[in-house]
Amino acid sequence: MIIKKYKANSMNEAITRIKYELGSEAVIISQRKIRKKGILGFFSKKILEVTAAVDNKKREDNVNYGIRTIKKIVNAGMKDDLSSGEKSAGTGNFYENNITRKNNEELIKEVQQMKGMLNKMMNSPYGNIGKSELQLKLESSDLNDKVIKKILSSINIMEDDRKDEEKLKEVVQNMIKVDKKKLAHVAVLVGPTGVGKTTTIAKLAGRLALMEKKKIGLITIDTYRIGAVEQLRTYADIMNIPFKVVFTIKDMEKATEDMKNCDTILIDTTGRNSKNKMQISELRAFIDKVKTDNIHLVISCTTKDRDVDAIVNGYKQLNYNNIIITKLDETCTYGSILNILQSAKKPISFVTTGQNVPEDIKTMSSEELTKLVLGEDIVC
Ligand SMILES: Nc1nc2c(ncn2[C@@H]2O[C@H](COP(=O)(O)OP(=O)(O)OP(=O)(O)O)[C@@H](O)[C@H]2O)c(=O)[nH]1
Ligand SMILES: [Mg+2]
């Protein structure tokens, strides 16, 4: 038994000190008013003298109880899913269970706060501080912030126990849609200047005419650029396939009509600035005449990320259905493939991997493209 006297100005003050020093099990044995000792004692204000006591054993039990409870909470926090506070509250007495549950709830709150802080740090503008390994890997593949955010949040909501790397592959693969359909009777290639439209048409024509022995016809409406017609005519002559140059919208229908016995007619167009709505509208007038739903937007994978959205949106009025990504041989990181596909929200039909006609063109599966995007494979 511990017995102690406390001098205080009020009972409240005395109880606070007793609880602090002896614990909540302490009991008050007596109280009386006294004057302070000393020369001025007789004239001084009266104060309270409170005597309190606590059973040694009970106090020790209290301490042990506290240690036990904390241990339980910590163990429960480490072993159990923190969100199921119920599980750890299944043993012990009612009071103990309630405390454990209450403390679990506090722990959950704290963990959630920490998660929030971590998320904020991951989005912090201060370099790499707080970025996960996964985020750094995605950034090193040149994926843009929007795509990285989408990937990370898809991984975050996956509840299985697989490694992040495996989840990452699945998420990226699901984001890449591939169009494996054969080219339609009429296929049109559109896109900005110099991305490789004419070269890609020549490659497709070569593949279909020479390797698959299909009847192919070539049409160009690119009468704008000097040498454009000759560029395609040369290929048509070498492959011995029909070739037509269309100057007016009226000629368009006749040209395709004349080639109706071909399995596939490939139409090459003038490279246009996606910001110039007039030029795109002009192009649309030609394309509308051929009534096809096989329009491919050609973009180079070396296109600056900031320009991708402008191109994808600028060409939207042509209602393209597929994306062809060119010049994969000119880069070492392939995040732009996913950036382009996510921006356009259309499936990819072909990729081109060099200047050689007709070899450097392929269809790639979403699995193969995922490997490129994640830096697990390279082109050439
Ligand atoms: N490295 C590389 N170069 C390519 C590829 N495809 C095309 N090129 C080159 O890109 C340049 C432009 O190709 P074109 O086919 O003329 O491009 P275009 O889109 O028709 O250009 P415009 O008609 O002017 O709009 C040429 O030098 C091609 O050889 C490719 O996959 N890889
Ligand atoms: Mg061209």
TrEMBL record:
It is found in: Cell membrane. Keywords: Bacterial flagellum biogenesis, Bacterial flagellum protein export, Cell membrane, Cell projection, Cilium, Flagellum, GTP-binding, Membrane, Nucleotide-binding, Protein transport, Transport. The keyword Nucleotide-binding applies. Pfam families: SRP54. GO terms for biological process: bacterial-type flagellum organization; protein transport; SRP-dependent cotranslational protein targeting to membrane. One of its GO terms (molecular function) is GTP binding. GO terms for cellular component: plasma membrane. Residues 183-338 form the AAA+ ATPase domain. Residues 184-375 form the SRP54-type proteins GTP-binding domain. InterPro entries: AAA+_ATPase, FlhF, FlhF__GTPase_dom, P-loop_NTPase, SRP54_GTPase_dom. Belongs to the GTP-binding SRP family. NCBIfam families: FlhF (TIGR03499). Necessary for flagellar biosynthesis. May be involved in translocation of the flagellum. This is Flagellar biosynthesis protein FlhF.
